[in-house]
Each structure stands twice: as C-alpha cells, then as structure tokens.
Amino acid sequence: MTEICDHGLSRRRFLAASGAAAAAAAAGGLAACAGGGPHPAASASPSPAPQASTAAFGTAETGTAAPSAASDLTGPGLVPGGPATAITHGPRDRPRVALTFHLGPHEAGQDLALAHQLLADAARLSVPITVFAVGQWLDGHRDLVPTILAAGHELANHTLTHPTLTALPADQVATEIAGCRDVLARLAPTQGRYFRPSGTSTATPLILAEAGAAGYRTVVDFDVDPLDYTSPGADAVVARIRADTRPGSIVSMHFGYPGTVSAFPRIVANLRTAGLTPVRVHDLLI
Fold it and tell me: For the residues of 117-136, what is the DSSP string, one character each?
C-alpha cells in the first residue's frame, strides 16, 4: 500500500528531506506525517471490524478511567492474531467519507490553539472525525482526551513516538504499536480500534504482522492527501480535497497547520453539497 500526491509532490522525498528536522522537534505541538508511492485504485477488503457503540455524533462514547485489568490494555475487541489487512478507503457504494487527522509532535513552540479551534469547529458543524494520535504526545496532553471524546470523535493508534516505522526492526515496530495501544486503552478504554503507521504509508509485511500481533485487524491508510503539512494554504487544501474525494474516501489531514484549520468549514460544506456525509472510520467500515 503506497501513496503519492496527485499534485506532483512525492511524500517519500519530503520525508527524506525532513526526517532529521522532525526528529529534533519530537517534543513540540501537533504532528505531520509522510510516505510515498502511488495509491492503488482500490483497497483490499477489510476484515470485519470489531463491534462497538455507534452512538450518534454528539454523545460521549467513553470516559478516561484506567482499565481494571491488564487484559483490558488490548483495547476494544483487539485480539492478537495473524497479519492485519491494509485499506485505503471504505465502500464506494455509500455516500460517506471519513475525515482523519494526525495528532502528535510538531514544530517546537506550537501551542494547542489550533487543535482547540478545529475541535470547536467540528462540534459547531456536527462533524465527527477520527484522530490518529501519537501515544507519548497524547499522554503528555491528556486534557485533550475528554474534549475529543465528548464530541463523539474517534481516537486511533498512530504509534508511540512517531518514528519512520519502515526503518525499525520487528521488536521496535512491536513496541511502537503496542505502546500507543496501551496509552489509548488507559486514557480512553473504548477507543483505539485502528492503527496507522507513522513516517510512511507503506504498510510492509512486517508492519502488518506486528499490527496483527498487537490485536489490530485493520491498518488504515487513505486515498485523499491534500499535503496540508507542506502548508500550501487553505485554498489549496480545499481544492485538493474537493477534487479527489468520492464515496468511501478516507482523507488525511493534520491538526497543527493554520491552513488546514481555516479550510475545515469549507471542506465540510463542499462534502455536504456533493451529498457526502462525514463519519468516523469505524462507521465508514461497518
């Protein structure tokens, strides 16, 4: 499973150029991600998603109490097994799309104002989103968790520290996946059904195997990438998402970019005008 910008920017080349700077900024605000290669025309069919609450958007789905037993640290319905299945989109025959956002380390000095603004806009517009969080960062900013969950959003796994996962051996890949899984289980016990690799969108056989061993049946990629982490401006983000999104699409965005946050209301308006309903990844796949 690979990806490339439909607008000429290779995410893998961007990652190679910026990897050293990203490592130096690991303790900052909100995350950017990178990968590379062309998207396939369609994804493999995902394994059946674990059944869970599908309460209407706007209702709290979970609390932040610590799990009562060690076995609870595998999250909602996660059962270790064989390799996970990688997907890039949901069913194409339903007018639904999933807006996903990465949340984690970002440039030093970035505060949380953009995150709070985006969450406030999502609540005002009644738009559920899926947040792929970096576990170590989220643990240090756990006050955001109730805000995310009270609005009915979904939290998912984006590794513990946001390394380039394809550069790591199996034991470190396992640690990254299980580490974030356990943070999510502690902070939001009913969350964390899905995993997305960091530093790449190419889910190698090793990544799929370790994700499966950690209990994940589905690794979630995306088929719409506006490259918002390159700061192209709000108009470009809006235009790219409008041009590339269709039923079943999974859109990748980031919290920490002003252009993305200011574009969000227009993105939602365009989707609704096109007859597409934003839903969480879980609701897209069930």
Answer: HHHHHHHHHT---EEEE-HH
